[in-house]
Amino acid sequence: MDLKQNYPLKDLNTFGIAVTARQYASFKSVPELQELLKHPAIDKENLLVLGGGSNVLFTQNYEGTILQNRIEGMTIVSENEDFALVEAGGGVGWHELVLFAIAGGLGGLENLSLIPGTVGAAPLQNIGAYGVELKDVFYNLEAVEISTGNLKIFDADSCGFGYRESVFKKELKGKYIVTHVTLQLQKKPAFNISYGAIKSTLEAMQVKEITLKTLSDAVIAIRRSKLPDPAIIGNAGSFFKNPEISPAEFASLKEQFPEIPSYPAAHGNIKVPAGWLIEHCGWKGKKIDNYGVHTDQALVLVNYGGGQGNQIRALAYDIIESVRQKFNITLLPEVNII
């Protein structure tokens, strides 16, 4: 086991924040992780698990231990004429799994194409895009309990999925490390093209027949047109959750701002695009020194190079306050601020 000290994290977070971890190690299997957790030098009370580092903003050096999940592997574990159960290691890149499913003719993940991060991180916040969420295809996951090293299986009900939420972000936060995820994918796909610009993008691409591949290509085209590539500009994708408000609250806002867009949400609530709220507070494209708000997508905060995490955090909270004052809506960060 190689436990590194004062390990640089700049290349392990997509914001490109130049901080260090007091201790760092990676693991490629469940037994290797279990052995790591037995190591007396590891501070279990200050333990952070990294996947692709695409949903984290470091505001300072991390004074605990960082473990990086590098468990690989994707396989069909069982199937019938309608469905296939696909298991993937927590360290697999999410888009790798999407491509694996598409190549196998298995539907359910195509709308989730090009989402950054790893498979192990996906259930923690119930990733979603273009009318689909992870919970829609989720079967179960395997996780190691940090305090004991024991393996436990969680089904969908025990994960407590909500909008960008799960039990692992609430009462079980910091208590388990996801090692494998199993999804139930469709052999007879039902295509979801009703959300956002998917239909118009398919038309612009002159797609004659909708397939898993053409739908995935359309989603990729939309994402690339709206979101900056972290390899070019440091960012973590959408920084804020889209707020959900009551119909009465929305009706009041609609009177003041007739053009405000909306989407149906769970429990009869209304989802309002956070990017629209931020843009209408004047933040879109705002640059402060070497960080700011992206020019094409107000939902994305960016590090142009050399920006500090605490500066980006301050910008985020300035945005939250301005949206609260103008719309009486409190935005919540989707990114983990550390």
Description:
The protein is 24% helix and 27% strand. The chain has 338 residues and is an alpha+beta fold. The chain folds into three domains: 4-69, Uridine Diphospho-n-acetylenolpyruvylglucosamine Reductase, domain 2, CATH 3.30.43.10; 74-186, Uridine Diphospho-n-acetylenolpyruvylglucosamine Reductase, domain 3 (2-Layer Sandwich), CATH 3.30.465.10; 234-337, Alpha-Beta Complex (Uridine Diphospho-n-acetylenolpyruvylglucosamine Reductase, domain 1), CATH 3.90.78.10. Strands 6-7-12-10-11 form a five-stranded antiparallel beta sheet. It has a four-stranded mixed beta sheet with strand order 1-2-5-3. A hairpin with a 2-residue loop joins β8 (128-129) and β9. The longest helix has 19 residues, at 309-327. The protein is globular. The relative contact order is 0.13. The mean pLDDT is 93.
Radius of gyration: 20 Å
Class from secondary-structure proportions: alpha+beta
Order of secondary-structure elements:
EEHEEEEEHEEEEHEHHEEHEEHEEEHE
Shape, per Cα inertia axes: globular
What is the terminal separation in angstroms?
26 Å
Average pLDDT for all residues: 93
Largest sheet: 5 strands, antiparallel
Q: Would you count the extended β strands for me?
A: 20
Q: How much of the polypeptide forms β-strand, as a percent range?
A: 25-35%
CATH topology (fold) name of the largest domain: Uridine Diphospho-n-acetylenolpyruvylglucosamine Reductase, domain 3
The helix fraction, in percent, is 10-25%
**Second rung of CATH, namely the architecture of the largest domain:** 2-Layer Sandwich
